[in-house]
């Protein structure tokens, strides 16, 4: 994260947004960054042709949201440089635009419950997909505040960048790191395949892939000697492993996809983890 760029958090004044604001303040303090709290006035599409600017009552509402957010932070932290601003436009678009100048963006996910747990929210999904900075997606849920930072290692794509960011998060959190390397092949039935050349070839491919991931892990660990880190290979689907691990982790770090940084998409694993895990860092 760039030293002089702020942590940016979006809020709409809701309870879940208040949790995100307080978590953003904690992150800003942890990394010694300024904090910028952003809220949006999103006029109805049909009204924009007439007057998209908010009324005086709406401006007062926006400023109240920002003031209440700032006061909530001051009740817990008194050493954070805080800026506030409101803008006219779609909330996700505003936060994506702001991410160009941010160390990270923090957004709240929807709450708990059988249905809500499956809905991370359109704003969070758009920001996690299109932002130029790392994105924290947080919800008040079941996680271990003293647990490790867990990072998912993919066999391809930006694994080094993701692992480096996870190492930095573990150092800042004062905790350990656990790197998970999972294999869908095993979950899909490798153990049930009949013995033969095909099964043996698949075993060799998996072993080679694991060696490559572990070699990268060892190389990155050498650049972070102050972080206690472990490498774990699990014969299961990556999505299941990371969601299960999120309950005992302080944070789960995922790559946005298995391709290059120019690809503005979320892979299936990252998207599933966003839907289910309490605290996720998307390694943009």
TrEMBL record:
Which Pfam families does UniProt cross-reference here?
A: Usp
Which SUPFAM superfamilies does UniProt cross-reference here? Adenine nucleotide alpha hydrolases-like (SSF52402)
Q: Which InterPro entries match?
A: Rossmann-like_a/b/a_fold (IPR014729), Universal_stress_UspA (IPR006015), UspA (IPR006016)
Q: Which residues are listed as membrane-spanning?
A: none
Q: Which domain of life is it from?
A: Bacteria
Domain (UspA): residue spans on this chain: 5-139, 150-282
Instruction: Please report which protein family the annotation says this sequence is part of.
Output: Belongs to the universal stress protein A family.
The name this protein goes by in its record: Universal stress protein
Organism, as annotated = Flaviflexus equikiangi
> What lineage is this protein's organism placed in?
Bacteria, Bacillati, Actinomycetota, Actinomycetes, Actinomycetales
């Amino acid at each position: 994260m760039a030293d002089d760029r702020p942590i940016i958090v979006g809020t709409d004044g809701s309870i879940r947004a208040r949790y995100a604001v307080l978590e953003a303040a904690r992150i800003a303090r942890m990394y010694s960054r300024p904090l910028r709290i952003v809220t949006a006035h999103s006029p109805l599409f049909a009204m924009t042709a007439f007057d998209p600017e908010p009324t005086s009552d709406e401006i007062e509402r926006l400023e109240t949201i920002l003031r209440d957010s700032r006061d909530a932070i001051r009740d817990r932290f008194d050493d954070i440089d805080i800026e506030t601003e409101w803008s006219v436009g779609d909330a996700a678009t505003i936060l994506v635009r702001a991410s160009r100048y941010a160390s990270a963006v923090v957004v709240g996910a929807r709450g708990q419950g059988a249905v809500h747990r499956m809905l991370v929210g359109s704003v969070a999904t758009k920001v996690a997909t299109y932002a130029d900075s790392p994105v924290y997606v947080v919800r008040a849920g079941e996680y271990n505040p003293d647990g490790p930072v867990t990072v998912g290692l993919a066999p391809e794509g930006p694994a080094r960048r993701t692992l480096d960011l996870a190492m930095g998060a573990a150092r800042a959190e004062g905790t350990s790191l656990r790197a998970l390397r999972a294999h869908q092949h095993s979950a899909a039935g490798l153990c049930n395949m009949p013995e033969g050349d095909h099964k043996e070839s698949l075993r060799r491919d998996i072993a080679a892939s694991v060696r490559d991931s572990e070699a990268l892990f060892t190389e990155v660990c050498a650049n972070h000697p102050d972080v206690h880190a472990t490498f774990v290979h699990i014969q299961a689907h990556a999505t299941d492993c990371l969601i299960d691990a999120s309950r005992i982790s302080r944070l789960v770090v995922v790559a946005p996809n298995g391709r290059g940084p120019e690809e503005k998409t979320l892979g299936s694993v990252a998207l599933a983890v966003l839907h289910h895990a309490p605290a996720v860092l998307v390694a943009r």
